[in-house]
Amino acid sequence: MDMRGYQQYKQQSVNSMTSGELLLLLYDELVKRATMATIALDREDFPTFEAAVDRCVDIINYLDETLDHNYPISKDLSRMYEYFTYQLGRIRIGRNKKELEALRPMLADLRDTFHTAEKNSSQGKRGQE
Fold it and tell me: CA-CA distance, 9 to 16, in Å (whole number)?
């Protein structure tokens, strides 16, 4: 299989996404990695668990760094991201499945909130045309 063609397709797909779609992609990846961490912890696959948690932290840090602070909600989101990062650090160090299972629904809820906002925004734009 020609991987260059796949890479070009993937790059083109990402380049054609709206900022809302890219944000949802990040949140989907965040939830996926948190789920991977849970599965890896159940299997006592600690290197995979740690890599998944580290990737979650990377994604959250990126989301926090790219916040537009011209909006009042950005301050609240930044605090939430700080909490998630703190919790993930505790989860990683303690290999704490209970805390991870408590955090995963919060990440999924935030993703779902942004999904709803993106959908409403898209419908609003179509209604203005």
Answer: 11
User: Which residue type is seen at 19?
Assistant: S
Q: Model's pTM, two decimal places?
A: 0.81
**Per-residue pLDDT tens for 18-65?**
878 888 999 999 999 999 999 999 999 999 999 999 999 999 999 999
Q: Which of 50, 60, 65 is nearest to 110 (CA)?
A: 60
With DSSP H G I counted as helix, E B as strand and the rest as coil, what are the percentages for the chain, rounded to 5?
A: 85, 0, 15
Sign (positive or negative) of CA dihedral 90, 94, 95, 101: negative
Burial (0-12, 13-18, 19+ Cβ within 10 Å), 75: exposed
Structure confidence by residue, pLDDT tens digits, 61-99: 999 999 999 988 999 999 999 999 999 999 999 999 999
Residue pair 100/93 in contact (Cβ under 8 Å)? The answer is no
Q: How far apart are CA 36 and CA 21, in angstroms?
A: 22
- Token readout for 72 is 């009042």
Spatial distance between the Cα atoms of 83 and 9, rounded to a whole number of angstroms: 36
